[in-house]
Design goal:
The structure is a homodimer of 332-residue chains. The first copy, chain A, has 332 residues and is an alpha+beta fold. Chain A has eleven helices and eleven strands. In chain A, helix 4 links the parallel strand 3 and strand 4.
């Protein structure tokens, strides 16, 4: 279809409205009014608070030019679902705005397939959007629900809490460093790390399970230490983390003992884009959280504890303090 | 401040978090949790539906490179408020995502001033956002409230309805054509038409006044005939419009009788970016709507009527049918 379109587009180009109708308009399942009016209309459950997040992805910054469209559609929504997960919210509705250099139907077909594959997994409904010509940029705003008082906020960590990470981290950064030529990945493992970077799994089910168990939570998008620091700053506490306890891929762990140690530490502590959750919880919740992780097939665990003060200390295998690599900053 | 920043930015650059804190973070007035967590948390009134809209503005497409930052901040929010107005919704919350080529503080200070100037006029609260480096692109998602069953939808026009336009249209397009060198504007009137293009006034108060009076409504962003056609298609009706009744600036009306007739008709019928409302209402509501327009200082009025069929016919001063200019389409 893409090829036919490309051949005949000068004769019968699709308008932006055709594109929206063809690839993004579906009958609303939960919205009172979905795509196609000035606004969507939805009702939320009054016993719940509405959790709202927004993320923008820019070509060349968040994804490579020529990135697979299916995976990109998935990822654009995944990063927003990850924010809902980190709040303990159940996904409900999202809007999608994007700029594209041209109305490439083959690309849109794949992009929308990837987007809806993840949306359908989580029962979240696309209710509106905006399409324009411009440098490839995708902006999604997602809405979820969480019962009053049960949201996992950043400012709720308490001294004595255990600090958890939901699953292995550093893998997305390893793939990025490989693309940049700074390291290599054995052929048999490339697909694993590509998936970590390009089709992250938002930990929505875990976020829901953590309601009433965890105190504070954040998703790891910019790097563990940078993101954990947001919790510490908001909660007015410090943390002590053990590098050896941070869950990561076996390949990264092995290389951490060798010549690439610094780069691997950077992957694990400062590598963004894994979209695992970092959260704090009282020791009394330990067994239930460990069980929830296990039931979800996640190899996460406790990486340290919340302490008084405002410092983040990461200790290596010998107990020595690790010099923390810089977390990602878009204007840094 | 901008200058100082530019001088010292290599020594002490602001991070994206500093930028958000400095220019966009305020204490939440109505949100339970505002900017600074994974999500914002808000509660909506259960007697209301939530109206949600999103718009993305791209440099070179929706605004000129070098556009005044204050006016741009205003306009980015205005186009979203206009969608809420066209739904009869009361503005409540919005999110803001943007890509910027660099962290230009002088620009951000002006942009945020313009944004909040309009936000404060309407009591709408910024609850979250995302900042990244990239081609200058701004994406806003706005949420408002409207009582169940009172939203002004596109699919509610009825045969016999009068078709209204809220105020003069075509002015934004005139300014655009002047920028493109296709026409001129007398010096004394330039500022008027610049304002029409760069700082449109979303008709929120009118949208609220039209609840229970109007049947269908849309905001004129892509051009009168194109936008009215959305109502006709959604409602399964046609319309007959009289060109002479469409409210427009005196300058445009005068020129419509001369050599620039075709260009002026294009401004009025196909010029987007005015963000006036086009709506349909039963004749029984005529007096109350006319009074609402008058109280709001708007020079709008009835431009035609809804008829059976699916055709849009615009008649000129002699009753002859006007060949309709093409409305704006981003991929056209």
């Amino acid at each position: 279809m893409g090829v036919i379109f490309l051949q005949c587009r000068k004769i019968a180009p699709m308008t932006e409205f055709d594109l929206i109708d063809k690839y993004f308009k579906r009958s609303p399942a939960h919205a009172a009014l979905g795509v196609g009016d000035d606004c969507a209309l939805v009702s939320f459950d009054p016993s719940q608070q509405v959790a709202i997040t927004t993320d923008m992805l820019v070509e060349g910054r968040h994804f490579f030019a020529g990135a697979d469209a299916f995976r990109l559609g998935w990822k654009c929504l995944a990063v927003n679902l990850s924010d809902l997960a980190a709040m303990g919210a159940r996904p409900r509705f999202f809007t999608l705005s994007f700029a594209l250099p041209d109305a490439d139907e083959a690309w849109l077909a794949q992009f929308s397939r990837g987007l809806f594959a993840l949306a359908d997994e989580h029962g979240i409904e696309l209710i509106g959007g905006d399409t324009t010509k411009g440098p490839r940029t995708i902006s999604i705003t997602a809405m979820g629900e969480v019962p009053h008082g049960q949201a996992l906020r950043r400012d709720a960590a308490q001294v004595g809490d255990e600090v958890w990470v939901s699953h292995e981290i550093g893998g997305a950064a390893l793939r990025l460093f490989e693309r940049w030529g700074r390291t290599s990945i054995p052929t048999a493992q490339v697909e694993h790390f590509v998936s970590r970077m390009e089709t992250p799994t938002p930990r929505v089910a875990l976020g829901l399970a953590l309601r009433g168990l965890a105190h504070a939570a954040i998703d790891i998008s910019d790097g563990l230490t940078g993101d954990l620091r947001h919790i510490l700053r908001a909660s007015g506490v410090g943390a002590r983390v053990e590098l050896a306890k941070v869950p990561t891929a076996q390949l990264i762990r092995e290389r951490m003992a060798g010549a690439e140690r610094d780069l691997m530490i950077e992957c694990v502590l400062a590598g963004g884009d894994d979209y695992e959750l970092c959260f704090t919880a009282p020791r009394s919740a330990h067994a239930r959280i460990a069980q929830a992780l296990s039931e979800l097939g996640l190899r996460g665990g406790v990486i340290g504890e919340i302490v008084s003060g405002n410092e983040l200390v990461v200790a290596d295998e010998t107990g020595a303090r690790v010099t923390l690599p810089k977390s990602f900053d878009h204007f840094g």
